Amino acid sequence: MVFPLSVTLPVAALAAILEAACGYPPALLAAIGHPVMWFGALIDRLDTALNQPEFSEQKRRWMGVLALILIVGVPLWITGAVLDVGYRFLPAPVMLGVQALGTCTLVAQKSLWEHVRAVGVGLRQNGLAGGRQAVAQIVGRDTAALDEAGIVRAALESLAENFSDGIVAPLLWAAVFGLPGAVFYKAVNTADSMIGHLTPRHAAFGWAAAKLDDAVNLPASRVAALCLILAAPAKNRAASRAAVRRDAPRHRSPNAGWPEAAMAGALGLRLAGPRLYKGVRVEDAWMGAGTPEATVADLDRGLVLYRRACLILVGVLLVGALLFMIPA
């Protein structure tokens, strides 16, 4: 089912506003879970069934391709079937609202804000132990030995990367393809987060998921960087642009470096750089030319920057929606 931009842009704009205001209601989470949990359950089943240790590396790679087709295809088929029935029996404006409600469950503006803010609260109330505990909820690196600067940098890097992956990307795909676009993106992104790792078990099986995730996130990472640059204080905007041009291509990820470099330049910090994952030191380039000695006050500034970037994104979606909804 293909929708015109006069439908998809309002869907994305309305979804962004609804999610920023309400988030995902805890009562709904307790009652039916979350769509990402449903994707995760499907991925778990396919990983168990198709990723057998006795398979050759080539066979595991092909099994990973098959799994990815199912991971994307099953949710899209269900979404398409529900929308097809809905459009047969309900007025188009009502179905636009249904699409917006569905899409807003796949966006994470409010929850990302809350999780990153919790790191600052933890540091202020319980010192390093509180900060480490809070930041461990949003990053995969080793946190036990992080000092305050390391905790804040980790939180800001997560804020920048998840602004791209958790907000810009699903809204961008929804703005072009409606709810099916957001479902497609979130299925791919969840697959990458669960099986797209260079571990003995998933290096071959998760190869297709990792490659597709890189491709589907490429436009959003650039849009996210632009939003952060525009949201930066005027005195730091040039530094943010320069950091993206200079440092983003040096990041080990083809996409994460864009929003991270933009945020680093906007805040006058250095982000990314070397870090530990399960005791293994991962070398990565520094993003930004500022100081690595980040403080809780810098985390507060990062959250302000994030909110301004979200407002810019929503504003663009609203303008686009109005332009395409108003008859020529």
Class derived from helix and strand content:
mainly alpha
The unreliable regions are: none
Order of helices and strands: HHHHHHHHHHHEEEEH
Radius of gyration, in Å, reads 20 Å
> Level of helix content?
over 70%
In terms of DSSP E residues, the strand content is under 5%
Whole-number total of structural domains: 1
Determine the mean pLDDT.
Answer: 94
Membrane topology: Multi-pass membrane protein
GO biological process, one term: cobalamin biosynthetic process
Pfam families: CobD_Cbib
Main location: membrane
Walk me through the structure.
The chain is mainly alpha-helical and 328 residues long. It has one domain. Helices cover 73% and strands 3% of the residues. The chain is built from 12 helices and 4 strands. The strands form 2 sheets. Strands 1-4 form a two-stranded antiparallel sheet. Strand 2 and strand 3 form a beta hairpin. Helix 1 crosses helix 5. It starts with a helix and ends with a helix.
